[in-house]
Amino acid sequence: MNPAANRLAHAWPARIALAVGFAVLLMPAAGGATVASMRRARAESLYHHALRMLDRRSFEGRRSAIADLEQATLMAPDNAAYQLTLARTYYQAGFLGSARRRFERVVAIVPNDAEGRYGLGQVWRRDWLKYLEPASLARAVEHFSACCRLRPDHTDGWIMMVPLLMEQNDVRAAYQAARLGLESDPRRPEALLAVAYTAYRMGQIERADSAFASAIPRMPRSVRERFDDISPVATEQDTVKLHRLAPLEQAEFVRKFWKDLDPDLATPANEALLEFPARVAHAYSLFYNPKLREWDERGEVYVRYGAPDKVIYNPVGMNLNYTRVVDGNYTSGRLFPANVLRWDYPNLGMSVMLQDRTLNEYYMLPVTMDRDPDPLPNADSLARHSDQLVTRSGRGVFPMLPPGVQPLAVHGAIARFESGATPQLLAQIEVKGSPTDSQWVEWAVLDSARNEVARSGRTLSPSACDPTGLRVADFAAELEPGRYLVGITVRDGSSRRGVYRGEIEVEPAGRELALSDVLVSCGVPFVGPGGAPNALAVRPEPNPAARVGPGAPLAAYFEIYHLRPAPDGLARFEYIYTVKSAERDPRIWIQRAFSPRKTPDPISATRGEEQPGTLRRQFVSVPVQSLPPGRYRLEITVRDKVAGSEATRRAEFVKTAGGMN
Q1: Parallel, antiparallel, or unpaired: how do β-strands 514-515 and 461-462 relate?
Q2: Residue 7, pLDDT above cutoff 70
Q3: Taking 80 as the threshold, does the pLDDT of residue 25 lie above it?
C-alpha cells in the first residue's frame, strides 16, 4: 500500500467516529436508551482501537490513539478508564497541562482512584523538575501520598515519593516511604535501592552498605553502569588507564581508587563508597531518562558534588539565548533560546550554569570557546573547609563524616624518623577535652597498594600544652620505604567524631647527612626506654596544631642522621634556625608588587656542636615572644663541618593572640 493510501486507511476510524457522533446527536430523544447504548458501544470501540494504536509504540500510533480517546471521552465523559488512558497518553506525549486536567477528571469521577492520584503526582513532579516551584513539589508529594494511602501496595507510588521527600529535607519520611515500598514488593530492586540510600542519609551505615550490595547488581545494566563508573570523579588519565586493564585488574584498580577516598580509615565501611551510590541513586530517581538510558548534566554534577545549596531557574538578568558553534566557530548573527539552571555551591566557591538548549528539559554545560565549562571547586574555598575530601582530579568532593555524625575538631601531624635500618613513622593527634572526657583514638596505616599495615587504638591523655583543655595521643610504627596513607579517628561519648588523614612518602635510610621531619612540641620531649618495639627513644610532647601561645618560646624537635666523625672520633656540625612569616597575601600579583605588605623581621641563630657518634637528637627553643600573631615558618639547616654537606627541613607554626585553644 502506498503512503497516501496508508494515511487514508488510518484516517477512516476517526472520520467514522466523527460522523457517528454527529448522527447520534441529531437522533430524536425518543430513542434515548438506544442512543446511549450506541454511544457507549462506539466509545468502547474507540477505546479499544486506541489501545491497539498505543501498542504500536509509534508517534503515529499515539496521535491516532489520542484522537480516538478524545472522541471516546466526549461520548462517555464519566468513564474513568477512558479519562485515565487519555491522561496517561497526554503525559507520555509531554502535554502536561492536558494530562493534569484529565487526571483531575479521573479523581473527580472516582475520588478513591489511586491511579488518578499517581498520575497527578507524576505531572506535578515533572512541573517541579522544570520550574523548581516548592508548591509543585508539595503537590507532587501530596498526590503520591494519597495514592499510597488508597493502595498501600502501589510500589511505584512509594518509589516516586522517596526522592521528593528527600528534596523536602524530610529524610525520616523518605526512609519510611522506601521501607513501605520494599514491603509492597520485595522483588523490586528500585525499592531496595531507595531503602539503601535513605538508610545512609539516616546514618544507618551497615544497613545501607548491605542494601546497596544487594540492590545494585539487580538493576538494569544501563543503570548499574552508573554505579560502577568512576569517570565523573576520576582524572582522565585514571579513566583511560582503567579501560585498558583486564577485568580482574580493573576491579583492583577501582578498589584502590575508592580506598584512596576513604575518609575514615578506622571504620569498616568506606563512607565515600556509600556517599557516591547514594548520590547516584538520587540522581537516577530524578534525572535519569529510561528511553535515552542516560541522565543529563544535572545527574553528572550531582554525583560529583552532591546537592547544591541553591538552585535557580532562569536567573534574573541571565541571557537566555545562546550562539551555536559550528566547525569550531560561533554562528554570527543568530541567537537561539535556552532555559538556564544555576546550581550554587558556596562552600565550594562555585556556581554551575546549565543550559537546556533543546527546550525539552535536557540540560548541558554551556558552549564556550574561551574556557573549560567543566565545573571545578575553588581551591581557597576548599582550604577553608577541612570537613571535605577532594578527589585527586578535583572533580569530586565528599564529606569527611557520614550523615548523622557530629564533627569533632582535631589537629594531626605526621613525621618521619630513622630507626636503625627501618624508617619509623610518628603520628600525633589533638582534640579539645577535659581530663574527665571519655575519648578514644584509633589509627590505621595503608601502604601504596592500600592494604593495611598498622592499626592500634588507645585513650587520649592530657596535653602538656594545656592539661585541662586539650587531649592528645601519638602512635609510632616501623615501616618499609614507600608511600603510605595514614588515618586517625577520635570518638567521644556524645557520638561525635574527628578524622585526620595524611599521605606521606617514607624514604629509605641513606648514608649521607639527613634530617628527620621537624616537630613543633610542647616543651622538652619525653625520653623513653631505648630499643622498645615500635617506640621512639625520644617522644616529642604532641602539639600537632603547632600553636605557640603569647609569651612562650617556640619548642621544636628534630634528629640529625649520618654525621661524619673526624679522625679524633668527634662529629662537628652547626645548625641554623630561621623563623619567617608564612602569611599568604591573597591580593593579585600587581598589588603585591607595588604595595608589598610589611612582614616581621626574621629571627635567626646559629649554634655549633661536637659529639661522638653519627646520630644527634636535637631540641631547640626559639624566642618568638616578640612576633605578632600569625603563621610562621621555621627552617632548620644543619651543616656537617667534617663532610662539608648540609641538609634542611621546615615546619610551620601559628603564633596565637590568646591561649592554646
Answers
A1: unpaired
A2: no
A3: no
- Residues in a beta bridge with 336: 322
- Compute the distance between CA of residue 14 and CA of residue 468 in angstroms, rounded to an integer: 88
Alpha helices in 408-544 (DSSP H): none
Q: What is the percent of the chain where pLDDT is above 70?
A: 91
- Confidence check: pLDDT of 23 > 90: no
Q: Around 533, how many Cα atoms within 13 Å sit in the side-chain half-sphere?
A: 0
Q: Are 472 and 430 in contact (CB under 8 A)?
A: yes
What value does the mean pLDDT take over residues 282-291?
Answer: 94
> pLDDT at residue 329 above 60?
no
Alpha-carbon distance of 382 to 61, in angstroms, equals: 54
List pLDDT tens digits, range 469-496: 999 999 999 999 999 999 999 999 888 9
Angle between helices 59-75 and 32-55 (to 10 degrees): 160
25-36: string of b/e by CB count within 10 Å (b at 16+)?
Answer: eeeeeeeeeebe
Q: At 254, list the grid cell.
A: 577501582
Q: Which residue has the cell 565528599?
A: 398
Residues in the chain: 661
Q: Calculate the dihedral angle through the C-alpha atoms of 585, 587, 590, 592, rounding to the nearest 10 degrees.
A: -30
For cell 486536567, name the residue: 101
Beta strands 406-407; 397-399: pairing state: unpaired
The total of other beta-carbon atoms located within 10 Å of residue 609's CB is 16
Give residue 275's pLDDT: 97
Q: What is the pLDDT of residue 238?
A: 93
User: What sign results for the dihedral spanned by CA atoms 44, 47, 49, 52?
Assistant: negative
What is the band of 555 on the pLDDT scale with cuts at 50, 70, 90? very high
Residues 6+ apart with CB under 8 A from 101: none
* Cα–Cα dist 205/277, whole Å: 13
CA 55 to chain centre: 42
Sign of CA dihedral 548, 428, 387, 350: positive
For 489, the grid coordinates are 579517628
